[in-house]
Amino acid sequence: MKRQQRIETSGPLSGHVRKGRRYLSPLAATGVLHTGDWVRDDLPDLLWPVLTLAELGSSAALRFVRWQGAVQRDLAGRTEPSVLADGLDGRLTSLDRLVEKVPDARGFIRDRARELGLLPQSVARALASYPERPAAWLVDLDFAPPDQPEVDLLARAILEALRDGHRESIIKCLSIWSAVQAGTFRSDASTIDLLKTYPNDPATRSMADSLIRAAWGAQKGFILTKEPTRFDAAVKWAKVFWGMNSMTTRCIRSRDGVGAAPSAEADSIQVAAGENPDNGSHLQRLAMDLLSSYIEALETSPARLYDQERQEVHSGLVARAGREVITALGVPDLWCMEHGAHVGRILVEVRIYLQWMGLQDPSIYRKYQEYGSGKAKLYTRIAEEFPEHLLSRPGVKDSVGELDRLSHNHPVVDHRIVDTGDSFAGKSLRAMAEESGLIDLYRHAYYIASGVTHSEWWSIETHCMERCLNVLHRGHLIPSLSLNAGGNVELAESWVNALHALIRMSLDILGTDKEAVTAAFAWLEPEEGTPDASDNTTDGERSADPAVSDPEATEQR
Q1: DSSP class of residue 445?
Q2: Taking burial as the number of CB atoms within 10 A of a residue's CB, which of 89, 333, 405, 423 is the most buried?
Q3: Would you say residue 364 has pLDDT above 60?
Q4: Cβ atoms < 10 Å from Cβ of 67
C-alpha cells in the first residue's frame, strides 16, 4: 500500500512534502523532475554553431538550414532519414556518428559548410584550439593553443549563448529544422503553426523561443530513456572542453576589470616596517601570503570546470578559515582562548570536513552545496514572514532577495529541497572525525574551542567570573571587570600553522599540479618540520590553544 505523503500545512515550508527531515516542493516530490545544465553538458558539443552565430549573427542560422538540406540531399538513399536528421542537428558528436554509418559523408559535410561560409577562418582557428574534439576533420588546421583573438571569440560566443534567449533558441532549433527537412519531425498542429514562421515573425518569436527551449530539454530526456548512453561522447568532450579552458585562460575577478588578466605572480612576502616577529605583528601578512599562494596554486593548475564542485568547496572552506585567521591576527586582543576560540574551532572543523569528504564519493561536494542552498531557501521563507513594516525598511527586501539568490532556486520551478538535518552529511562532526582518522584532533582541539564558543559554564567561570572576596558573601562568583589581555603570540602562531597545514592538505586532496604548488609557494623556504597534511598531531597538549601543526613549522620572515 502506497504511503500517504505528509504535506506541511503551516510554517515557512507550508505546502512542501516532508520526507524525514527533508522538505520537497510538490513538483520535486513527484520524482519526475530532473534539472540539467545545457551550457556545461551540451554547449561544447554545439560549439560550431555557437561560434559561427557569434561571428556572423543569428541570421546565419539560415545558412545552417541550407547546409542541412544540401547534405541530406547529397546522402539521400545511403541511410535512413532519421539517421540523417540526428547526424545534422548541429552537434559535433552527431557528425562523427553520421560518418561512422556513412564514411564518405565527411566530404559532403565539409564542402557544403565551406560553400555556405559556415567555417570562417576565425571559427576554424577557435575549433582547432581544442585537442580531442569530436569531428576534428571538420577543419584542416592542426591543434594550436588559442591566441587572444580566439579567446575573445570563444568568450563572446559563450556569453551570448548564455545571455541571449533568442540565440539559445536558434541553436537548439537546429535539431528541429534538421528533422523537418528529413521528414521525421512530429508534433501537434499548434506547435507546427508556431514554428512555420520562426524566426521571421516578430509577433510570435518570443513564444516560439520559449517553446523551442522547453521542447529541447524534453526531447533530450526522451532520447535518454530510449538510449541512456546517447550523450556519453558529448559529456566526455565537455570535460575536455572545460578542462582545456582552465589551462589556457586565467580567472578574472571583478576588481581586475572586464577583460583584465590577473597576474600569475604572487606578492613576495616582506616584513613591513614596524613588524616584529617577537610580538607577532608579522603574522597577519604571513597568513595573507599563505592564502594568496593557495589561490595562485589553484588558478595556475588545470581545473575540472565540468564538475567544479570539489574545487569550489575546498577553496571556499579554506578561504573561509583563512579569512577568519587573517582578521583575528589583525586584532591582538583576540589572541586568547576567551575571544579567539572560534578561530581554532573553524580551523579544526574545516580540516575534518575536507578530509572526510575526500574519502567519500565525489558527489558529496554537490550534496554539501545543495544542503547550504536549501538552508538559504528556508531562511528566505522565514525572513518573508517579517511584518510588512519591517520588510519595507531600506535594505531588508534586498537582504531577503540575496538569500533567495543564494538558494539557487528557479523563480518559476520550485525545485530546491530543504534538508533540516543536523549536517550535510547526515552525521555529526565527531562521526566524520572518527571516519577520517581525526578523532584525536577533534578531542584535543575542537572540544575545548567548542566549549568556549558555546559558553559552557567552565568557560564562563574561567574567563568571565571572579571570586567575591567579601567573606560575608560566602565566596560566590561575580562577573569580572577585567578583560583578557590577549596578545598570546604562541596562540596566534598556532593559527597560522594550522592554516598552512590545512592549505597543504587541500592541495594534496585536490591533486593540484605540483609545479604550480611549488611556484606559488616559492617564497616560503621549506624547513624541517614544515606542516604536512598528513600530520594529525595537535598542540592541545603543548599550549593553551588547539592547533593542527607544530608552532615552529612555518617559515617566518
Answers
A1: I
A2: 89
A3: yes
A4: 22
* pLDDT tens string 45-68: 999 999 999 999 999 999 999 999
Specify the amino acid at residue 510.
L
d(CA 494, CA 43): 47
> 340 with 311: CB under 8 angstroms?
no
Report percent pLDDT > 90 for the chain: 59
Please tell me what DSSP assigns to residue 76: B
Which grid coordinates are listed for 240?
575536455
* DSSP-derived 3-state class of residue 389: helix
Read off the amino acid at residue 433: A
Reported as a single tens digit per residue, the pLDDT across 119-164 is 999 999 999 999 999 999 999 999 999 999 999 999 999 999 999 9
Residue 456 CA from chain centroid, whole number = 37
Q: What is the pLDDT of residues 319-360, one digit of tens each?
A: 999 999 999 999 999 999 889 999 999 999 999 999 999 999
Q: Taking the CA atoms of 145, 147, 150 and 151 in sequence, report the sign of the dihedral they define.
A: positive
Cβ-contact 186, 147 below 8 angstroms? no
Query: CA-to-CA distance for 176 and 88, rounded, in angstroms?
Result: 10
Separation of alpha carbons 357 and 365, rounded Å: 7
**DSSP label of 137:** G
CA 102, chain centre distance (Å): 41
- Sole residue written with cell 530532473: 34
Cβ neighbours for 89, distance < 8 A, ≥ 6 positions apart: 174, 175, 178, 179
Rounded Cα–Cα distance for residues 484 and 479 (Å): 13
**Residue at grid coordinates 545545457:** 38
- Written as nine digits, the cell of 137 is 576533420
**DSSP string spanning 214-282?**
HHHHHHHHHHHHH-TTTTHHHHHHHHHHHHHHHHHS----GGG-TTPPPPSPPPPP---TT--TTTTTT
Q: Distance between alpha carbon 457 and the CA centroid of its chain, in Å?
A: 40
pLDDT tens-place string over residues 24-37: 888 888 888 888 89
Residues sharing a CB contact under 8 Å with residue 13, sequence separation 6 or more, in sequence order? 23, 378, 381, 418
Please name every residue paired with 17 in a beta bridge, in sequence order, or none if there are none.
Answer: 7, 24
**SS3 at position 439:** helix
pLDDT in tens, 173-200: 999 999 999 999 999 999 999 999 999 9
Phi, psi values for residue 6, rounded to 5°: -95, 120
Helix (H, G, I), strand (E, B) or coil at 102: coil
Asked if residue 334 lies in contact with residue 328, where contact means CB atoms within 8 angstroms, the answer is yes
Q: Would you say 203 and 266 are in contact if contact means Cβ atoms under 8 Å apart? A: no
Q: Which three cell numbers stand for residue 288?
A: 595573507
